[in-house]
Design brief:
Shape: globular
Number of helices: 9
Number of strands: 2
Radius of gyration: 23 Å
Distance between the termini: 81 Å
Number of domains: 2
Helix content: 55-70%
Mean pLDDT: 86
Amino acid sequence: MVLMAKRSNKTRNIFDAISADDALAILRLLAKEDTKIAKRIEQIATEYLSDVDIEDIASEVYFELDSIEVEEVWDRSGRTRNGYVEPTEMAFQMFEDALEPFVEEMKKYQRLSMFVEAKNYCVGILRGICRFEEESTSEYKDWAVDAPAEFFGWVLDGWKKGQKGVTEEEVRDVKKAGRVLKGDKAEKGEGRKEQE
């Protein structure tokens, strides 16, 4: 005699039980089975990804940079198996490491040909860097004094390379928008001193 599992009358919420990998595999199967579902999945994904909030990104970038502990710079610098690592060199490396996930997300938008969203994401990253430079009181910042300016240019160049047909005027606009801090005079149309 085979025992059948007794099903509960309560509705199971499978979404709470499956992993992200399971969900992706299921979506791929659905898309493969039905082209209408595939198109709908693509439409929903595009709508979902198009919600790029510049200030949210700026806050996340600022938080990541401001969370770097100076003690970690000291722990990771000095003598190593491969020689000596200057604390300022390590501080720069840690700055880049903190920005890397954000830059990869910006590039994802470019790969998806979502160029407006990529531009907004870039502006958010740049604003986060500027906010760190202007507002952070972390001791780590003292070891990465030139990092904000250098990585501002690095992010801007990365955006420019991935955009299609970007003009110098657009680059200036992104640079200017990236330097606007929340509540800044430039946001109110009064402008900020341009850093070069």
